[in-house]
UniProtKB/TrEMBL annotation:
The protein's name: Hydroxymethylpyrimidine/phosphomethylpyrimidine kinase
One GO CC term, this protein: cytosol
Keyword Transport attached: no
Superkingdom, natural source: Bacteria
The enzyme's E.C. designation: 2.7.1.49, 2.7.4.7
Family of the protein in this entry: Belongs to the ThiD family.
InterPro entries recorded: HMP/HMP-P_kinase_dom, PM/HMP-P_kinase-1, Ribokinase-like
Chemical reaction(s) catalysed: 4-amino-2-methyl-5-(phosphooxymethyl)pyrimidine + ATP = 4-amino-2-methyl-5-(diphosphooxymethyl)pyrimidine + ADP; 4-amino-5-hydroxymethyl-2-methylpyrimidine + ATP = 4-amino-2-methyl-5-(phosphooxymethyl)pyrimidine + ADP + H(+)
Annotated GO MF terms: ATP binding; hydroxymethylpyrimidine kinase activity; phosphomethylpyrimidine kinase activity
All copies of domain Pyridoxamine kinase/Phosphomethylpyrimidine kinase, residue ranges: 11-265
SUPFAM superfamilies: Ribokinase-like
PANTHER family: HYDROXYMETHYLPYRIMIDINE_PHOSPHOMETHYLPYRIMIDINE KINASE THI20-RELATED, PHOSPHOMETHYLPYRIMIDINE KINASE
Catalytic class of the enzyme: transferase
Length: 275
C-alpha cells in the first residue's frame, strides 16, 4: 500500500487539518500518517485557541515516520510560525522526501490567522523551493504574488509570478472567486475553477459550484487528495483531476453537521454504492 504523511495542524472538530487529511488518504486507498505542528481548539463556527508545538517534537515525529515507513508523498498544511516553517523544511531536506504538496495555509475560512504574519518570507524562500506543487487559495495567492486577483486572467498572471520563484507546479484554487460572477464561463454556468500552472503550461480544472455552505476543510482535502494520487503514481495534471473529482463529490454529498460552516462527507463514495 502507498503511504502519505501529513504535516499539519489538528482540528478538534475533525473537518480540516490532520483529521481531514487522514480521512481523505484512507478514502483514496493510501495509508495516512501524521506529524502534528499545532493543536487548534476549533469547530464549524471558528478557531478558539491555537497551541504551536515545539520544533524538536515536530522534527521527531517526521523522523520517526521516515525512519520506519518512508512516505510516498507528503502533504504540508498549517505551520503556525516561521520557526516551524524552517524546521519542517530542514526535516524534508534531511529525509530527502519526495512528492511534496504544500498547502500554504494562512487564514482559516472563519477568519483566524493560522500562520504568523511574519512567516510568509520563510514560507516563500525556505519551504516553497522544496515543493512539487503549491496550492494557494485566492487570498494566499494574492499574498504570494503581491497582486490583487479578481478574475481568471488575474489568476493566470499570479500563477506565472508564483511559479517564477521555484521549480514546482502552482494550483490556484478559485473557490473564493466562484459565485462572484468573476469566473463564469460562456454558458453562464457557475463553476469552481482552479488553475494549474505546470511546466510552463496552464490548465483549468473546472467543477460544478455546489450550493452548499458546508465547505470547512476543502483546501486540506484537495491537497491531501493530490498527495494520495501522486503517491499512487499519477502525474501532476492527473493527480489534480482525480483530487478535484473526489473533493467535489465530498462537498456534494453534504453532512450538515455543526452550527457553522460544516465539514465534508469524506465517505461519499461508499454512501453512493450503499444506496
Ligand atoms: N461550493 C463549492 N463547490 C464546489 N467546489 C468548491 C466549492 N467551494 C470551494 N470549492 C473548491 O474547493 C477547493 C478549495 O477551495 P478554496 O475555497 O478555493 O480554497 P481554501 O479551502 O483553501 O480556502 C477548490 O478546488 C475549489 O474550487
Ligand atoms: C488545523 C487547520 N488547518 C487548516 C485549516 C484551514 O481550513 P479552512 O480553510 O477550511 O478553515 C483549519 N481551519 N485548521
Amino acid at each position: 500500500m502507498k503511504t502519505v504523511l501529513t504535516i499539519a495542524g489538528s482540528d478538534s472538530s475533525g473537518g480540516a487539518g490532520i483529521q481531514a487529511d487522514l480521512k481523505t488518504m484512507t478514502e483514496l486507498g493510501t495509508f495516512g500518517m501524521s506529524a502534528i505542528t499545532a493543536i487548534t481548539a476549533q469547530n464549524t463556527c471558528g478557531v478558539n485557541a491555537v497551541l504551536a508545538l515545539p520544533c524538536d517534537m515536530i522534527s521527531a515525529q517526521i523522523d520517526a515516520v521516515c525512519d520506519d515507513i518512508f512516505p510516498d508523498a507528503v502533504k504540508i498544511g498549517m505551520l503556525a510560525n516561521s520557526q516551524i516553517v524552517e524546521c519542517v523544511a530542514a526535516s524534508i531536506k534531511k529525509n530527502a522526501m519526495k512528492n511534496i504538496v504544500l498547502d500554504p495555509v494562512m487564514v482559516s475560512t472563519s477568519g483566524h490567522r493560522l500562520l504568523d504574519d511574519d512567516a510568509s518570507d520563510a514560507l516563500i524562500n525556505v519551504l516553497m523551493p522544496l515543493a512539487d506543487i503549491i496550492t494557494p487559495n485566492i487570498p494566499e495567492a494574492e499574498c504570494l504574488a503581491g497582486m490583487k486577483i479578481a478574475s481568471k486572467a488575474d489568476m493566470i498572471k499570479a500563477a506565472g509570478i508564483i511559479a517564477g520563484s521555484f521549480d514546482g507546479a502552482v494550483l490556484i484554487k478559485g473557490g473564493h472567486l466562484a459565485n462572484t460572477g468573476a469566473n463564469c464561463i460562456e454558458d453562464s454556468t457557475n463553476v469552481a475553477a482552479d488553475l494549474l500552472y505546470h511546466g510552463g503550461q496552464t490548465q483549468w480544472f473546472e467543477a460544478e459550484f455546489v450550493d452548499n455552505p458546508n465547505t470547512h476543510g476543502t483546501g486540506c482535502t484537495l491537497s491531501s487528495a493530490i498527495a494520495s494520487e501522486l503517491a499512487k503514481g499519477a502525474d501532476m495534471p492527473e493527480a489534480v483531476r482525480k483530487a478535484k473529482a473526489y473533493l467535489t463529490g465530498a462537498i456534494k454529498a453534504g453532512l450538515n453537521l455543526g452550527k457553522g460552516r460544516g465539514p465534508l462527507n469524506h465517505a461519499w463514495q461508499n454512501t453512493i454504492s450503499d444506496c
